[in-house]
Amino acid sequence: MIDNDKHVSSVRRELGNRPVEDGEAIVGTISQLYPTDVADLWDAVTNPERIVRWFAPVAGEFKEGGSYQITGNASGTISNCDKPRGYDLTWEFGGQTSWVEVRLIPEGDGTRFQLEHIAQVPGEFWEQFGPGATGVGWDLALLGLARHLADPAAVPDPDVIATWHETAEGQAFLRASADGWGAAAAGHGVEPELAKAQAERTYKFYTGQE
């Protein structure tokens, strides 16, 4: 079993900036240390038969230059693949394109999964929700990955997933995640009261209250 509180509190969240072709982008970095080796973690995050057990169904050509489509979510192109160290891809969703860079880093007896989401965030969207709008989604993915690695044969129940945000367990996790991204925003220079308000709106969004 995964201790949700321990998991969410040990996730690292950071914000930064990076120049891109059309200006400057916000970089949201999230990482978690998993008790497995690089080869196993690489397989878990690149094998479609395993990805569906912790994230979502995905189809495509899983190679450099190939395309992918996540059911009900993003699509894009795999721009770089450096097995088993990591990969880069475009993240195309809702008419917007951003970029995702994944790195697998040996650390002690385990492997750290690190993901950078690089986006030119629209002003109004950023003002309303801050980094938690996408960050909480990645937190949920990292929790799913932890549960999968703890029990690789388990098949998630869609009905349980669909209502998890209504449970005390789910709401506690989403509260901690949203507040964690609020703290990351404040650490990046966002005025603390604004960062707190953004985190609150993000929490309400993910729990169906807004």
Description:
A hairpin with a 2-residue loop joins strand 7 (96-107) and strand 8 (110-119). The longest helix has 20 residues, at 168-187. Helix content is 43%, strand content 31%. It is built from eight helices and eight strands. The protein has an eight-stranded antiparallel beta sheet with strand order 1-2-8-7-6-5-4-3. The chain has one domain (4-156): Alpha-D-Glucose-1,6-Bisphosphate, Chain A, domain 4 (2-Layer Sandwich). The two termini are 31 Å apart. With 210 residues, it is an alpha+beta fold. The chain has helices spanning 4-10, 38-46, 48-54, 123-129, 132-150, 158-163, 168-187, 192-206, and strands spanning 12-20, 23-34, 58-60, 67-70, 75-82, 86-93, 96-107, 110-119.
**Terminus-to-terminus distance:** 31 Å
How much helical structure, as a percent, in the residues? 40-55%
Structural class: alpha+beta
The CATH architecture name reads: 2-Layer Sandwich
Q: How would you characterize the largest beta sheet?
A: 8 strands, antiparallel
Number of strands: 8
Strand content: 25-35%
InterPro entries: ASHA1/2-like_C (IPR013538), START-like_dom_sf (IPR023393)
Family: Belongs to the AHA1 family.
Protein name: Activator of HSP90 ATPase
Organism: Actinoplanes auranticolor
